[in-house]
Amino acid sequence: MKKKIAIHWFRFDLRVSDNPSLNYLSKNYDNIVGIYIFDDINSDPKLGSASKVWLHASLDYLNKQLNGNLIFLKGDAKGCFDQLMDSFDVEEISWNRSYEPWIVKRDKSLKMYLKSKVNVNSFNGSLLWEPWEVLKNDGTPYKVFTPYYRKGCLNSEMPRTPIQKPKLENLLFDKMNSISIDDLELMPEHNWHVAMEKLWTPGEKGAHNKIDVFIKEGLANYKDGRNFPSGNNVSQLSPHLHFGEVSPNQVWYRSKTQEGKKEIKRDLDHFLSELGWREFSFNLLYHFPTLPKENLQKKFDKFPWDKNKDALKKWQKGLTGYPIVDAGMRELWQTGYMHNRLRMVVGSFLVKNLLLHWHHGERWFWDCLVDADLANNSAGWQWIAGSGADAAPYFRIFNPVMQGQKFDPDGKYTKKYIPELKDMPNKYLFNPWEAPKDILDSANVKLGKDYPMPIVEIGSSRQKALEAFATTKS
After folding, report:
1. How far apart are CA 314 and CA 317, in angstroms?
2. Rounded distance between C-alpha atoms, residue 376 and residue 215, angstroms
3. Phi/psi of residue 468, nearest 5 degrees
4. Rounded to an integer, what distance in angstroms lies between the CA atom of residue 153 and that of residue 134?
């Protein structure tokens, strides 16, 4: 006789506490099976390399939390559930919702199929506000962040308070159905990930440690300090939020425990608004599912992008000749992360100085970032390019020399990732091509050999970008 069970399907909710679906099942069923399905067949886009490394570590931690009872499956979700329903008398299947277009489409079809056989439930475990809950008075979605967040979100029902960790004694394991975590084939063949892994602690405990450290050391002066990449005023919670090792509700309410401190009122408000930006990106992705692939502003469809593969490769490798740009790109490659200020700087350089399509940047970030999130990544790149909703105007072009001088004035960040310039005086650190020969000699720098000359000239490339933008207005 088959054992009666309920199934919780882990997706972007790799945690035990504040997990609405898991909590619901634990209250209603004596026997629960927790599963994770790696569906690399249907996923669009395929998971990036850095994300796979993080996912492996996060799943490993979650499995240990569940006393080794997590069932790993691989392939098409429908086939995996058919396999489970052949083995068990399944009474209910439950999960927390995801908002990526291919998942929304898959889940709708899957729900219809499963409902003819079992009870099916889904919950909000990833957002503070559902995309269909925050709309303008006419029922259409917001396209501008400030009214979306200030008028829409903050005037809606406040986010639900976090749920306590459920009892998990009733979790079952079925060796007949589970493959091993290694069978998911998430880890790379070469060991490029080793250095990156040392910088992060994937999993629920690591996520909550990040919150504690940020609130203690980074929240004060967050509003201004978050612009300086060598400082500690960023939370680095984005990969933990992406994989659901912590919920935005937990971050929201944990942060709001500090709201009685008047000296950090503006910092707390700004940090919460950054959580609002994350919500806004999901709002855009849900209502405009072509966001990762198509310009939201259709006039950019006729933008005359360049196709310089050599320039793209130099940008990817951090060899543009602009130290602040190269430092950001090398941070990305070495750590799987990039400071937000640098994301804007390197993005502006790619699309506005090199005139390369934002798709190239979006794809590179997707493969290299541990926090590669379809909503944030595509919305962010469209914002930088000027082609998205509430985007930065195209004529807003970051000057990489001035950005370095302003936001890395002591050169600490830049010299960390570009050690070949470690002896350059700060006066010439961000424009070494202007340094006198004796300065370069004393810093042991031979331009074109130790560090490249600029691949484009800022002034002329800016003018070229403005001329290209003008063609979209006709």
Report:
1. 5
2. 23
3. -65, -40
4. 6
224 Cβ contact partners less than 8 Å away, ≥ 6 residues apart = 233
Could you tell me the CA-to-CA distances from 387 to 251, 357, 472 in Å, in that order?
A: 31, 11, 11
* Lowest-confidence region among 177-191, 351-365, 423-437: 177-191
CA distance 100 to 391: 21
Name the pLDDT band for 168 (thresholds 50, 70, 90): confident
At 321, list the tokens: 């000749």
**45 cis-preceded (ω within 30 degrees of 0):** yes
Per-residue pLDDT reduced to its tens digit, 221-237: 999 999 999 999 999 99
Rounded Cα gap, residues 299 and 472, in angstroms: 6
Instruction: For the chain, count helices (H), then strands (E).
Output: 21, 6
CB-count exposure of residue 144 (10 Å: 0-12, 13-18, 19+): exposed
Please write the tens of the pLDDT for every residue from 252-265: 999 999 998 999 99
Residue 15: partners with Cβ closer than 8 Å, 6 or more residues away: 62, 204, 207, 244, 245, 246, 247
**Quick one: tokens of 104?**
């929304």
In the numeric block, which tokens belong to residue 165?
A: 């960790």
In the chain, the N- to C-terminal Cα span, in Å, equals 71
> Where do runs of H (alpha helix) occur along 290-399?
309-317, 323-335, 340-348, 358-368, 374-385
- Strands 4-10 and 119-123, how do they pair? unpaired
How far is 233 from 347, CA to CA, in rounded Å?
Answer: 21
184 to each of 40, 58, 166, 241, how far by Cα in Å? 9, 13, 27, 22
Q: Which residues pair with 413 in a beta bridge?
A: none
User: What is the Cα–Cα distance from 256 to 193, expressed in whole angstroms?
Assistant: 35
**Average confidence score pLDDT of the chain:** 95
Residues 200, 161 contacting (CB under 8 angstroms): no
**DSSP H/E element including 208:** helix 204-213
Q: pTM for this one?
A: 0.96
Q: Which two tokens stand for residue 247?
A: 């919920």
CA distance 159 to 149: 13
Which among 89, 92, 84, 91 is positioned nearest to 176, based on CA atoms? 84
pLDDT digits (tens, 9 = 90+) for 16-69: 999 999 999 999 998 999 999 999 888 999 999 999 999 999 999 999 999 999
Residue 214, pLDDT > 90, answer: yes
93 DSSP β-pair partners: 7, 120
Radius of gyration for the chain, computed over Cα atoms and rounded to the nearest angstrom: 24
Q: How does DSSP classify residue 148?
A: I
Distance CA 426, CA 32 (A): 60
Cα–Cα distance measured from residue 35 to residue 13, given in angstroms and rounded to the nearest whole number: 12
